[in-house]
Amino acid sequence: MPRPKITWDEQRAVLDRVRAQMARLGISKGGFAAKMGVERTTVWKWENSKTRFSMETIQEMERQLNLPANELLKLTSLIPASTERFMIGDNAVEVAISNAEDLTPEGVRVLLSMYRQLQVKGG
Questions:
Q1: What percent of the residues of the chain are helix, what percent strand, and what percent coil, each to the nearest 5?
Q2: Cα dihedral 106, 3, 96, 78 sign
Q3: Pick from 68, 105, 109: nearest CA to 89
Q4: The model scores a pTM over 0.70
Q5: CA atoms of 66 and 93, how far apart (whole Å)
Q6: d(CA 4, CA 68)
Q7: What are the pLDDT digits (tens) for 92-120?
Q8: DSSP state of 68
Q9: What SS3 string covers 52-93?
Q10: CA 55 vs CA 58, 74, 75, 91, 106: distances in Å
Q11: 87 shares its domain with 73
């Protein structure tokens, strides 16, 4: 099954937030590219709608720019707005469960509950 892609508008929204955080932290585009482990041309391609970035790339942006988990992801359709209430710290398990296409809302609630119980028990 192909991974969902963000829209160009969502990508622009993420990049606007990234640029604001870069400015706040005093990070240049070259510095950002280095933190991300990509070439400056890759950042240029993101900015000029030549390539879309993945959910993993967005999560790495959050880490490298010291943003809270899912700060950028929630600007996209990769995390439904209803998923935010299920987020626990930096874990992305909730995202995977909530994005499972074959689960009903009740199935999502049950799996999240089971996951939380495992976390409490140290499992």
A1: 65, 0, 35
A2: negative
A3: 68
A4: no
A5: 20
A6: 22
A7: 566 666 666 666 777 777 777 777 777 66
A8: P
A9: CCCHHHHHHHHHHCCCCCCCCHHHCCCCCHHHHHHCCCCCCH
A10: 5, 11, 11, 14, 25
A11: no
Q: What residues make up the domain containing 18?
A: 1-78
Number of structural domains (the chain) is 2
What pLDDT digit, counting tens, does each position of 64-82 carry?
A: 999 888 888 888 877 655 4
- Which residues make Cβ contacts (< 8 Å) with residue 79, sequence separation at least 6? 70, 73, 95, 98, 99
Instruction: Look at the block and give the residue holding tokens 């935010």.
Output: 84
Whole-number CA gyration radius for the chain = 16
Cβ atoms of 116 and 88 closer than 8 Å: yes
- Helix, strand, or coil (residue 69): coil
72 and 86 co-located in one domain: no
CB 79 within 8 A of CB 70: yes
What 3-state DSSP class applies to 16?
Answer: helix
Let me know whether 16 and 42 are in one domain: yes
